[in-house]
Amino acid sequence: MDHVEVEVKLRVPCSQLELIANRAIQAGGKVEGPLEEIDVYYQHPCRDLKVSDEALRVRYVNGSPRSITYKGPREAGQFKARREVIVDVGSDPDVLLRQLGFEPAIRVSKARTYIRLGNVELTLDNVEGLGCFVEVESLRGKDEDVSAAIKALDIRGEVVNRTYAELVAELSSGSVRST
After folding, report:
1. How far apart are CA 32 and CA 165, in angstroms?
2. What pLDDT does residue 154 have?
3. Which residue spans adopt a coiled-coil conformation according to this UniProt entry (predicted)?
């Protein structure tokens, strides 16, 4: 799947995740999870993906490989927007990536619940070492879907513009404090 991802990430108190989930369910949201997700981000053998604001990720769900994802540079807009290409996998692509010279660089582990509600998908995340977050993503790539869902569900929190991989990297270097 190739599309433009439009989303916002908000840091929230962990005690708010259940309340937000209940509001979304009462509004007709369909729930999947909680799931254990591990995302492994890879370094390119010939260029620095951090410098070009790109990412290559393999996602494991409940211990099994689920997808490999390319994320392009962030685009201008009210919310974070970037090209995203997702390819579902049936077996672990790690061996292939390593043979091509890619190396695992960052590992993000989280408990995640997905809630699909109208034109948005909410993810309620408890990220190891970082705390709790809500991501609101438009399924149509539209800023107004994100804004409407935040307002309708009364989601309040600190907007976080960095990715989980960036936050984990900063935590590992000692420049970010866990909440």
Report:
1. 23
2. 94
3. none
- pLDDT the model gives residue 179: 36
The CATH number for 169's domain is 2.40.320.10
* Residue 176 DSSP symbol: S
Q: Do the beta carbons of residue 7 and residue 141 sit within 8 Å?
A: no
Bridge partner list, 43: 103
Residue 34, preceding peptide bond in cis (omega within 30° of 0): yes
Assess if residue 179 is contained within a domain: no
Residue at 86 is within a domain: yes
- 8 Å CB contact between 141 and 133: no
pLDDT of 171 reads 86
- Give the residue numbers spanning the domain of 24: 2-173
Q: Which amino acid does the sequence have at 57? A: R
Structure pTM?
0.87
Distance, CA of 31 to CA of 24 (rounded, Å) = 9
Contact 145, 151 (CB under 8 A): no
State residue 176's pLDDT score.
44
What gap in Å lies between CA 176 and CA 82, rounded to an integer? 24
List of the chain residues with pLDDT < 50: 176-179
* H-helix or E-strand spanning residue 143: helix 143-152
- C-beta of residue 106 within 8 angstroms of C-beta of residue 163: no
**Distance between CA atoms of 72 and 62, rounded to whole angstroms?**
26
Chain centre to alpha carbon of residue 26: 24
